[in-house]
Design goal:
Blueprint: H1 25-53, H2 92-128, H3 130-145, H4 148-159, H5 163-190, H6 193-200, H7 205-241, H8 253-260, H9 269-301
Helix pairs in contact: 1-2, 1-9, 2-3, 2-5, 2-7, 3-5, 4-5, 5-7, 6-7, 7-8, 7-9, 8-9
Length: 303
C-alpha cells in the first residue's frame, strides 16, 4: 500500500511521539543535579568525619602547640600550615580538624539521645493515648514554650560550660520535637490495615508497637534527625562564640570564629576558614536530610 501524500505529492513529516512513561529531559537533568548535590554533600560529611576520627594519627601539629616564630601566617602551600596560623602560631588546620571532632560529637551524641528518648515517648503517647499522651504533651509543650537560646544559656550557666553539659542541654532541647514527630507518625500508622489486622489476631500492644509501628516510625524520624545534627552544630558554634561552649584550649569552630573576629581586617582567614567549614557541614547535613526525608516519605506512601 502506497504511503499517503499531500496534494503536491510530498510525504507528511514524521512526528515522534513521546511515550507517557518516558521522563522529559528537564526532569532528568534536575534529578541528576540533585543526585550530584547529594553525593557531594555525602562526600564532604564522610571526609570531615574521617578527619575527626583519625585526628590523633594524622601528620599535623597539636592544636595547642604555639609557635611564636610563625604568628598570623596566611594560608599557603606548606605543610601542615596549609590554612595558616593564628595569633599564637598554632596551626589552623589542626585546630579546624580537632574542632570538627567537638562539633560532630556534640551534634551526633545530642541528637542520638534526643532521638532515643523523644521517639520512645512519642510512640507511647501516640499509641496508648489518654493519660500517657496528656502527660507527655504537657512536658513537651512546657519545654517548647521556653526559647531555645534562653534554655541553653540557663543550662550552661548553671552547670558550667563543658562538652557534657552542652550535649545534655541540646538533647533536652531536641527531645520534645522528636516526641511530637514520633507521636504524629504513630497515630497515622495505628490506623493502617496491617496494624488493625495484628490487633484483631490477638497481638499484644508491645508486640504491635515493636513489629508493626516502630520500624515504620523510625524512617521519617531518622531523616529529621539528620537535619537536626546541622542545627545543633550551629547551636554549639553560637554558644562557643559567646564563650559558653567548650572551654579553651579545646578548639571548636565557634571558638575559632570568636578568636579570629578581632583580627578580621588584618587576618580574615582566621574567621573565614572555620565559617566555611561550618557552612559546608551544616549545608551538607541539610541536603542529606532532605534527600532521606523525600525517599522515606515515598516509601511510607507506598505502605
Amino acid at each position: 500500500m502506497a504511503p499517503s501524500t499531500d496534494v503536491q505529492g510530498r510525504k507528511p513529516p514524521f512526528i515522534r511521539l513521546r511515550m507517557p512513561g518516558r521522563p522529559v529531559p528537564a526532569a532528568g537533568r534536575a534529578r541528576k543535579q540533585r543526585q550530584v548535590g547529594f553525593w557531594l554533600a555525602a562526600s564532604w560529611l564522610i571526609l570531615i568525619v574521617l578527619l575527626a576520627i583519625f585526628a590523633d594519627v594524622l601528620p599535623i601539629k597539636g592544636y595547642a602547640t604555639p609557635d611564636f616564630n610563625a604568628i598570623n601566617q596566611p594560608p599557603g602551600l606548606r605543610w601542615p600550615e596549609l590554612l595558616g596560623t593564628d595569633s599564637l602560631g598554632r596551626s589552623e588546620l589542626s585546630r579546624l580538624i580537632y574542632g570538627a571532632r567537638v562539633s560532630l560529637a556534640v551534634g551526633f551524641v545530642s541528637v542520638g539521645i534526643a532521638f532515643v528518648v523523644g521517639t520512645t515517648l512519642g510512640v507511647l503517647a501516640g499509641y496508648f493515648r489518654r493519660v500517657t499522651e496528656a502527660v507527655i504533651n504537657i512536658t513537651s509543650d512546657t519545654l517548647l514554650a521556653i526559647p531555645p537560646l534562653v534554655l541553653l544559656l540557663g543550662i550552661t550557666v548553671v552547670l558550667k560550660p563543658s562538652l557534657r553539659n552542652l550535649v545534655v542541654g541540646l538533647a533536652v532541647l531536641g527531645t520534645p520535637t522528636f516526641a511530637r514527630l514520633a507521636k504524629a507518625n504513630t497515630q497515622t500508622m495505628a490506623r493502617r490495615e496491617f496494624v488493625s489486622a495484628s490487633v484483631i489476631l490477638g497481638a499484644r500492644p508491645l508486640r504491635v508497637l515493636w513489629r508493626d509501628i516502630v520500624p515504620n516510625v523510625l524512617l521519617p524520624v531518622s531523616a529529621f534527625g539528620a537535619e537536626l545534627i546541622g542545627v545543633f552544630i550551629v547551636a554549639e558554634a553560637s554558644l562557643s562564640f559567646l564563650g559558653l561552649g567548650v572551654p579553651a584550649p579545646q578548639p571548636s569552630w565557634g571558638g575559632m570564629i570568636a578568636a579570629g573576629y578581632p583580627n578580621l581586617s588584618t587576618a580574615p582567614y582566621l574567621t573565614f576558614v572555620p565559617v566555611a567549614a561550618l557552612f559546608l557541614t551544616v549545608f551538607s547535613f541539610k541536603v542529606v536530610g532532605d534527600r532521606l526525608r523525600a525517599r522515606f516519605d515515598l516509601q511510607e506512601a507506598k505502605l
